[in-house]
Each structure stands twice: as structure tokens, then as C-alpha cells.
TrEMBL record:
Protein name: Amine oxidase domain-containing protein
Domain Amine oxidase, chain residue ranges per copy: 49-505
SUPFAM superfamilies the record matches: FAD-linked reductases, C-terminal domain, FAD/NAD(P)-binding domain
Organism the protein comes from: Glossina austeni (Savannah tsetse fly)
Pfam families from the UniProt entry: Amino_oxidase
Highest taxon of source: Eukaryota
InterPro entries tied to this protein: Amino_oxidase (IPR002937), FAD/NAD-bd_sf (IPR036188), Flavin_monoamine_oxidase (IPR050281)
GO molecular function terms listed in the Swiss-Prot or TrEMBL record: polyamine oxidase activity
Length: 509
């Protein structure tokens, strides 16, 4: 055996320094300064955040960038599919706002605002239908709508409120209702309020507004301008072509070329290694394949982190990071899409909201169709008059995913009969989303709960990278849940990807 000399041992000891993250300590080798041309960056996930980070790094001259995507497609929670006469979005659907929205601003800078179209105000006017087929008069609906508008404009009141959004809205609604001189029936008001809350939950993705913290509304920044810009007949994936600088990302990945690897699910990330190996992060895939990296940008969803972080990261993540992962919540919203032979009738309806009467909801809860309680409405799809889109939220959305497609459609057709005086024909095609049961997502978008506030954590802790004492980022985190002010949005996810790419770029400058 060849023994090392005393001199060799002393040299190696001098090259080692103490590495700290929280209370964890390990001896590491002081690395030779690397450059963007030599370092290896592995990005986990190719949704909006992962794609944005990869493109930014490649444009900055980083040559060795790899993107590992667990699905058989890119896009994450943006998924545009062929349906009807064109395409539909199963995930992110609108460009929310113009000023301060990085997706809108990217389109504007590229002179491609022609991809977007303003949503006609009339198309967002819906009929309110009770479960006995009674349609609320426009006058009744308008009076209640005025109250809902006041609730939406009550953000200033939330600044001094430390309870749930649900509690605050409930108190405000009934106080405003009491002020009406010519009041609608109280039962109708309650039914409308219940439906309005479900509609709000489709934006928050929570099971109930009583778990949503007031800080969720305060911290979220709306982008000025039209918040329901739709993608004409091209779908949200039009943005990917622009981002990747290609005509069709499905056949040509543009700037990312061969850097994206599909069907590559990460199992372990060994991010803190022994002294002579510290410069490398070891990534093990489900397939058993091993990839070595200098930096990792993790863009998996909050739900995936919650389910897998204990086994995914070795050593375990610091306690402050775990607190953020467990303190935030990833909710669920699912869609139903129907294609009919002819445009849905009545032709002058843009859609309808489902108001359950007390006696009908009680009867429903005793049946196998109980989950229909959280289906709050059905709406026309822009530019596709033969399509109808329905929405479901919360725990019932998760339950719906466990049923067969045939069972789901049968129950929804029963619901049409319950609410509508006309006969709705069988659709020629039907699809539903299942974002929670997909182990690569486990939900749709994140929000702040009262528990989040109790733990005094938030998106900022989830976003904070794991770094060494010299400030070198080792494992970074991106995704909509890491965005403190645009969480739950595709533009928030894109922002976070650029943020982490810029962190690396600045480090190597």
C-alpha cells in the first residue's frame, strides 16, 4: 500500500474548510473557481420556471445546462392539447394582467401581442341558476354582484385583519346585504354567496376560504390591465415557442436543443458530500442513472416537495426550509371540457353558475354524486362555441379524480338535468383534468394559510437557496410557490426561474 506523506496530508487539510447550513456542518474541499463555460447546472423540472431558468443561463453563456423532466412533455402545469376545432388549456389558461406581468412584457418586447386577445366583458356575464331550474332575474343577480364587487375591493380592510379571508368575507357580505333596501330572498343570497366563495376558491385553490390567510390577499400583487387575456386559438403553449425562440417547440426545442431530457424523474439529490467530493452534487434518477452537477435548480411543485423531500434530499433539508415546505399549501382546481355537435344552448348564455338550494344540497350529500357540490359553474370557451368548460375545487376535486371518466361524465349529465330546463345532449367528446393524482404535480397552485402565518414562514423561505459560507448557491428553488407576490401564476413561475438563473449569473460574474 502506498502511504501518503505527512506533507500531502497537510496540503489536503489546508484545502478543506468548514461548510455550514443552519446547524449542519461538514468538511469540504475549497474549489478552484469555475466559469460559466465549465460548470454543470442541472435543472429539475421543465415547466415555466425550469424552462425560463434554462433559457436565461444558455443566453448568458452557460454551456453545460441539463433539464430533467419527469413527464413525457415539457410545460409543467401549462398543458395545451388539441380539442374541438382548435386547442384548449388543461392548466394555466389566461395571461393575468399587462403591467408587471413578465409573460405579457415578453410578448410585447417581441412584438407578439397578436397572440393575445382581450376578453369581451359581455362574455363574463353569466346566468345564476338554482337547483330547481329557477333562473335568477338580472336585477337580483346584479344587486348581489354589487356586494361581491365590494368584497373584492376590500383589500385595505384585510391589512389590519389577522383571521381568515372566509371569516372576513362572511361578515362583510351579510353586513352589506343588510344595507339593501329592496333585498333579494335571503335563501337566494346565501346560495349566491356560497357559489361566489367557490368561484374565489378557483383562484386560491384552497378547500375553503376559512383556511386562506388575509396575508394571502395582501401579499399577492395583481398586475394592472386586463386580467383575463386569452390566447386566441393558439393556447398558452404559444409562450414556449417565444421563450425558446423556435417555431414549434414540439419538433425543435430551439435554444435548449438536446438539453431537455424527458421521462427523467429524480429520486435522490446528495447535495452535501465528503471533503474530496464536495464540488459535486450527485443526482440519482428513478431509472438508476446518476448525474453529477455543480449546481441544482429544483423547480418541482410544492406538492412534490411535501411528499418527497424527506427521501429526496441527502442530507435532510434545514429545518427552516422544511418549515416553509410544510407551512405553505398546494391546492387543487380541476376542469371539465365538453365538445358538442352544436353550440351549447341557450345560445344567448355565456355560461351559468350553479346555486344549490338547501334541501337539494342535503339530498345530494346522501348520494354517490356528493362531489358535485363543488362544481360551481359551466362556461363557454373563447373562439370555440361548441365547447363548454366546467370547474371543480377542493376536496371534491381530489375525490373526482379517483372516479372513472365514465362515472364523472354520467354525474355531470345528471347535474345538467338538475339545473337546466332544456335537455343537454351527450357530448361527442369529454375530458377532465387530474392534477392531484399525478405524482409529478400533486395539485395546481399554492396559497398562504393561517398555518403559514403561524409558522412565520412563506415563499421567501421556500425560495432561499442552500449556500456555502462563501455564498456559493448549491441547491436553488424556483416555481410559483417560491414567488412572494405572484404565487399561483405562470408569470410568477417564470419570474422565479429568471431569479434563480440571475443568481448563478451574478455569482460567476
Amino acid at each position: 500500500m502506498c502511504l501518503r506523506s505527512k506533507f500531502q496530508i497537510e496540503v489536503e487539510q489546508k484545502k478543506c474548510k468548514v461548510f455550514r447550513i443552519g446547524k449542519a456542518m461538514a468538511l469540504v474541499t475549497s474549489p478552484v473557481r469555475k466559469t460559466p463555460q465549465t460548470i454543470r447546472v442541472v435543472i429539475i423540472g421543465c415547466g415555466c420556471s425550469g424552462m425560463a431558468a434554462a433559457v436565461r443561463l444558455v443566453e448568458a453563456g452557460f454551456r453545460n445546462v441539463s433539464v430533467l423532466e419527469a413527464e413525457n412533455r415539457i410545460g409543467g402545469r401549462v398543458q395545451t392539447v388539441a380539442f374541438g376545432d382548435s386547442v384548449v388549456d388543461l392548466g394555466a389558461q389566461w395571461c393575468h394582467g399587462e403591467k408587471g406581468n413578465v409573460i405579457y412584457e415578453t410578448l410585447k418586447n417581441e412584438n407578439r401581442l397578436d397572440l393575445l386577445e382581450h376578453t369581451d366583458e359581455e362574455s363574463t356575464s353569466f346566468k345564476c341558476v338554482r337547483s330547481n331550474k329557477e333562473v335568477l332575474s338580472d336585477n337580483e343577480a346584479l344587486k348581489l354582484s354589487h356586494i361581491f364587487t365590494k368584497l373584492m375591493d376590500s383589500e385595505d380592510d384585510l391589512h389590519s385583519y389577522e383571521g381568515s379571508v372566509g371569516a372576513k368575507y362572511t361578515d362583510m357580505f351579510w353586513r352589506e346585504f343588510a344595507k339593501l333596501t329592496d333585498k333579494p330572498d335571503r335563501a337566494v343570497a346565501r346560495e349566491s354567496f356560497e357559489n361566489w366563495k367557490k368561484n374565489q376558491l378557483s383562484a386560491d385553490a384552497a378547500d375553503t376560504l376559512f383556511e386562506v390567510a388575509a396575508t394571502d390577499k395582501i401579499e399577492f400583487w395583481d398586475c394592472e390591465g386586463d386580467n383575463m387575456l386569452h390566447w386566441k386559438d393558439n393556447g398558452f403553449h404559444s409562450f414556449f415557442n417565444l421563450l425558446l425562440k423556435t417555431k414549434n417547440y414540439k419538433t425543435d426545442m430551439g435554444l435548449l436543443g438536446e438539453k431537455v431530457q424527458l421521462n427523467q424523474r429524480v429520486k435522490y439529490i446528495e447535495w452535501q458530500r465528503e471533503c474530496n467530493k464536495m464540488n459535486e452534487i450527485k443526482i440519482t434518477l428513478d431509472s438508476g442513472k446518476i448525474i453529477m452537477a455543480d449546481h441544482v435548480i429544483c423547480t418541482v411543485s410544492l406538492g412534490v416537495l411535501q411528499e418527497n423531500h424527506e427521501i429526496m434530499f441527502n442530507p435532510s433539508l434545514p429545518l427552516w426550509k422544511i418549515r416553509a415546505i410544510n407551512g405553505l399549501k398546494l391546492g387543487i382546481v380541476n376542469k371539465f371540457l365538453f365538445e358538442f355537435e352544436k353550440p351549447f344552448e341557450p345560445l344567448d348564455w355565456n355560461g351559468f353558475l350553479c346555486l344549490w338550494r338547501d334541501e337539494d344540497i342535503q339530498a345530494l350529500r346522501d348520494t354517490e354524486k356528493f362531489w358535485l357540490e363543488s362544481v360551481f359553474g359551466f362556461f363557454r370557451v373563447e373562439s370555440q362555441p361548441r365547447l363548454l368548460q366546467g370547474w371543480i375545487i377542493g376536496s371534491h376535486a381530489r375525490y373526482m379524480e379517483t372516479l372513472s371518466k365514465k362515472e364523472v361524465l354520467k354525474s355531470l349529465m345528471w347535474m345538467f338535468k338538475q339545473f337546466l330546463a332544456i335537455t343537454v345532449p351527450e357530448p361527442i367528446k369529454f375530458i377532465r383534468t387530474q392534477w392531484h393524482s399525478n405524482r409529478n404535480f400533486r395539485g395546481t397552485y399554492s396559497f398562504r394559510t393561517l398555518y403559514t402565518d403561524e409558522l412565520r414562514t412563506g415563499a421567501w423561505d421556500l425560495a432561499a437557496p442552500l449556500i456555502d459560507e462563501e455564498g456559493k448557491p448549491i441547491v436553488q428553488f424556483a416555481g410559483e410557490a417560491t414567488n412572494s407576490h405572484h404565487f399561483g401564476t405562470a408569470h410568477g413561475a417564470t419570474e422565479s426561474g429568471w431569479r434563480e438563473a440571475d443568481r448563478l449569473i451574478n455569482y460567476y460574474q
